[in-house]
Specification:
By secondary structure, this protein is of the alpha+beta class. The chain folds into 2 domains: 132 residues, no CATH class; 255 residues, no CATH class. It has 17 helices and 19 strands. Helix 10 crosses helix 12. The longest helix is centred in the first third of the chain and has 21 residues. The protein is elongated.
Length: 492
């Protein structure tokens, strides 16, 4: 048992966890989260673990200002009937700690954390260092491994066999796989150059590729505007000035963070939607009408999408302190259960954030445009409240498991994704024509119908890119969210 174990944690023993005598028993723990936090800060190792579990497993509620840390509900630890586990409960969170998902609880020292890397803390003084480390040691290898995969020439079990095929879908295929830049991108100012808005004229069928187009890799930002995005908008008034110079310090923090990350990855260009469209003036919305239909291609052609998944307002930024890591937790042993036959000891391991909870239930994916952005992006960096996640057609990973989620985690995520198909390229390639145009498509529509739009007129435009990609691999007549092959099901 740890040298510092508070009075509330002392009764939580190996015997309590394993013995049939304690099935159905409940222990009253600390009166609220604040007292739990004080005990954890004072050094109780088990309180630190319980604190971490409650933070990581708290349900994500879009637009909610209430954090689990602010709740005043009492905490209980109980032993459920029928199996060996501990249930930590504090309304609205229930954390089941057991020998299942991620092997949270282990008998006699089984190490479930093999291969797990520490989650960066992103403290105020260490934020820049953490970003630079992640960019160099984690993100760049993710991108390079995925982008440089040769697709179908690789072995059948290659994780990234569908990741390269995406190039078939988009507007200007080229042997080098380097896409045409969008109409307007931010040149982030590598090597001391001045950041500015890089503008080109839209491509037309009469253009010559080399003379009228610039080909380059770029990153793209997916984020919630919220109330803090006014300073990001390009207008007729500031367009010419931005083509010369962008005052980065005047921008919302989410965009500043994205620019810093782009530089840290050694990339020159970043696409941000507020910059790409000259905001309508009066009845003049010509730029919007020209650019909106291209959004699917912009996301599909990007090297990688920076997704500010855990942020509801662009003023907040996505480089922020990870609350769960403020008081680092380590594996701890419960006091042993000694019988005449044997001695057993339960070990409880630190929790890891849940991919599903952090990504799918986030504020960003309640936004209608984000459904298309996620579906069409070949590679996504999900910056969530608790950790960084990677998603491409072949792999899901995290900063704490950079080589990919464990089998248990992957299966759990996959089960949830069956209820929330998002039509990425892997889905489209894996499933049959009927499964895509009927089952998967209408599951996507069900989710899409629950999302929010500032302008309801955007709904069909924001879905058109996904339909365009599905139609490439499963040709059919499409109109207004319906496929001719399944018209009856679509109208039902």
């Amino acid at each position: 048992m740890g040298s510092q174990r508070c009075a509330k944690c002392a009764p939580i023993t190996t015997e309590f966890t394993l013995s049939p005598e304690f099935e159905g028993a409940k222990l009253m723990h600390h009166d609220n989260f604040s007292i739990l936090e004080q005990s954890a800060a004072a050094g109780c190792d088990l309180c630190r673990l319980i604190r971490q579990y409650l933070i990581h497993l708290a349900p994500t509620k879009p637009n909610s200002q209430t954090k689990v840390e602010d709740t005043s509900q009492p905490i209980t630890v109980s032993r459920p009937k029928g199996y060996k586990a501990l249930v930590v409960h504090m309304e609205p969170v229930e954390a089941c700690i057991h020998d299942g998902h991620c092997n949270d609880i282990a008998l006699n020292g089984k190490d479930s954390l093999s291969g797990t890397k520490p989650i960066h803390r992103f403290t105020a003084e260490g934020c820049q260092r953490d970003v630079d480390e992640l960019a160099k040691d984690v993100i760049r290898p993710w991108i390079d491994r995925c982008f440089l995969s040769t697709g179908f020439d690789n072995p059948p079990n290659d994780l990234h066999k569908y990741c390269v095929v995406r190039n078939k879908s988009f507007i200007i295929p080229r042997a080098t796989d380097i896409p045409s830049l969008p109409t307007r991108v931010i040149d982030v100012g590598l090597n001391g150059t001045t950041p500015h808005l890089r503008v080109r004229h839209p491509w037309t069928p009469t253009d010559e590729y080399e003379s009228d187009h610039e080909f380059a890799q770029y990153l793209i930002l997916s984020y919630c505007w919220g109330h803090g995005n006014e300073a990001a908008k390009t207008t007729k008034v500031n367009l010419q000035e931005r083509m010369k110079r962008i005052d980065i310090n005047s921008l919302p923090k989410t965009i500043r963070d994205a620019i810093y990350l782009t530089r840290a990855l050694g990339e020159r260009y970043l696409f941000v939607d507020a910059f790409r469209i000259v905001q309508p003036s009066g009845d003049d919305n010509g730029d919007w009408l020209a650019e909106a239909p291209r959004m699917g291609d912009y996301y599909g052609n990007a090297l990688c999408t920076i997704s500010a998944t855990g942020v509801a307002d662009s003023a907040d930024g996505f480089f922020h302190a990870r609350t769960a890591q403020r008081l680092p937790a380590t594996s701890c042993a419960l006091s042993p259960w000694i019988t005449s036959e044997k001695t057993e000891t339960i070990y409880i391991h630190p929790s890891t954030p849940l991919w599903w909870n952090a990504v799918i239930n986030s504020s960003l994916y309640q936004r209608g445009w984000a459904v298309q952005e996620r579906a069409l992006s070949p590679r996504i960096l999900h910056w969530t409240e608790h950790a960084l996640y990677w998603e491409c057609s072949g792999m899901r990973a995290s900063e704490y498991r950079p080589d990919g989620l464990t089998r248990e985690e992957s299966e759990w995520v996959h089960e949830n994704l069956q209820r929330d198909v998002h039509m990425n390229l892997g889905t489209i390639m894996e499933y049959s024509r009927r499964e895509i145009l009927c089952w998967a498509w209408y599951r996507l529509i069900e989710r899409y119908a629950r999302t929010r739009f500032t302008y309801t007129s955007d709904k069909l435009i924001a879905l058109s890119g996904v339909a365009k990609r599905a139609n490439i691999y499963h040709p059919d007549r499409y109109a207004a969210g319906l496929w001719s092959e399944n018209l009856v099901e679509g109208l039902a």
